């Protein structure tokens, strides 16, 4: 077939490299993004990054508030003449009636090696769970949650120092390359069903996912820090007060979970269930980040001080 005409569904900045890569090679006949939302203290109505970029490029843009039962939007997608639709971090569930509109359906760029880490936060949970390799999957979207057949897949090694911020950047670039390959090979790709027995899940993060579990191993505490770096970030408690912790790494030492072992120019060494972590920077609530040693001196934190222990409620 000739080069397919593409409808692109995406919302956050993560999706921008994918949109740019597609429009360089293919005709983008419609861009679909989430509606504008109030942002900042002034609650100024602000378009998502994909919508803002589409407006700059003067691409046809739609921002429907809902998709299910939206006959007008279904008609607009049909009238766009799209041969295929691509989704990248769009943020809404697609109903079956919409999936049937483009002749070649919907292709989704998912940031894991499916069937591993289906769901809203595959980048974050891969890091939290200590994975050393992840990747991108181009899949044919169906009505399930990331359950459709796989069209293309490519691995990506995770650098030990990467947080969710760096990993998202690397996966965004990989997704941009891989979706161009997939579109170039349509309709010659062979769909491969996912192995349901190997499926794992990556639910949307909540604030409590960023709370430090001092009883975990030092490596697990650092992996959680890496996974929640973009949001909700790492939170600890001292005498009930919340503190953001930044610059975490594994260090030497042993003690009671949450116990401060050392305070020096390199930061704090805090014991975990196994080993210890170094904390370089501390940010008390409603204050700016400061070197951990400076914060400790002001807060009267010395070796032997113990952070509050927090554990998730039983499921």
Automatic annotation (TrEMBL):
Q: Which GO terms describe its cellular component?
A: cytosol
Which InterPro entries did the record assign?
Fmt, Formyl_trans_C, Formyl_transf_N, Formyl_transf_N_sf, Formyl_transferase-like_C_sf, GART_AS, Met-tRNA-FMT_C, Met-tRNA-FMT_N
What EC number(s) are associated with this protein in UniProt?
2.1.2.9
Q: Which residues bind (6S)-5,6,7,8-tetrahydrofolate?
A: 112-115
GO molecular function, a single term: methionyl-tRNA formyltransferase activity
| Formyl transferase N-terminal domain mapped to chain residues | 5-183
Which key words are in the record? Answer: Protein biosynthesis, Transferase
Q: Known CDD domains for this protein?
A: FMT_core_Met-tRNA-FMT_N, Met_tRNA_FMT_C
Q: Which reaction does it catalyse?
A: L-methionyl-tRNA(fMet) + (6R)-10-formyltetrahydrofolate = N-formyl-L-methionyl-tRNA(fMet) + (6S)-5,6,7,8-tetrahydrofolate + H(+)
Formyl transferase C-terminal domain: residues covered: 205-299
> Is-annotated flag, keyword Secreted?
no
- Please provide an example of a Pfam family that matches this protein in its UniProt record: Formyl_trans_N
Q: What does this protein do?
A: Attaches a formyl group to the free amino group of methionyl-tRNA(fMet). The formyl group appears to play a dual role in the initiator identity of N-formylmethionyl-tRNA by promoting its recognition by IF2 and preventing the misappropriation of this tRNA by the elongation apparatus.
Looking up NCBIfam families in the UniProt record yields: fmt
Of which family is this protein a member?
Belongs to the Fmt family.
Name under which the protein is recorded: Methionyl-tRNA formyltransferase
Give the gene name. Answer: fmt
């Amino acid at each position: 077939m000739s080069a397919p005409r593409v409808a692109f569904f995406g919302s956050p900045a993560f999706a921008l490299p994918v949109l740019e890569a597609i429009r360089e090679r293919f005709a983008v006949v419609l861009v679909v993004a989430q509606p504008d939302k109030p942002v900042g203290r002034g609650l100024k109505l602000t378009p998502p990054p994909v919508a803002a970029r589409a407006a700059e490029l003067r691409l046809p843009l739609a921002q429907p508030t809902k998709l299910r039962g939206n006959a007008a939007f279904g008609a607009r997608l049909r009238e766009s003449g799209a041969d295929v639709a691509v989704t990248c971090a769009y943020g809404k569930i697609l109903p079956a009636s919409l999936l049937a509109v483009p002749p070649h359906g919907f292709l989704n760029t998912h940031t894991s090696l499916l069937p591993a880490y289906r769901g809203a936060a595959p980048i974050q949970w891969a890091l939290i769970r200590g994975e050393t390799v992840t990747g991108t999957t181009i899949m044919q979207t169906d009505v399930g949650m990331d359950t459709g057949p796989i069209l293309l897949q490519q691995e990506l090694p995770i650098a030990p120092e990467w947080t969710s911020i760096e990993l998202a950047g690397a996966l965004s670039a990989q997704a941009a390359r891989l979706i161009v390959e997939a579109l170039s090979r349509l309709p010659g790709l062979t769909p491969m069903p996912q192995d349901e027995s190997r499926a794992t899940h990556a639910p949307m993060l909540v604030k409590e996912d960023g709370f430090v579990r001092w009883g975990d191993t030092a490596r697990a505490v650092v992996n959680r820090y890496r996974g929640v770096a973009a949001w909700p970030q790492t939170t600890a408690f001292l005498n009930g007060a919340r503190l953001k912790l930044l610059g975490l790494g594994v260090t030497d030492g042993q003690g009671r979970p949450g116990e401060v072992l050392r305070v020096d120019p390199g930061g704090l060494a805090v014991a975990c269930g196994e080993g210890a972590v170094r904390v370089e920077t501390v940010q008390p609530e409603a204050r700016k980040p400061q070197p951990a040693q400076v914060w400790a001196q002001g807060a009267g934190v010395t070796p032997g001080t113990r952070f509050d222990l927090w554990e998730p409620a039983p499921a």
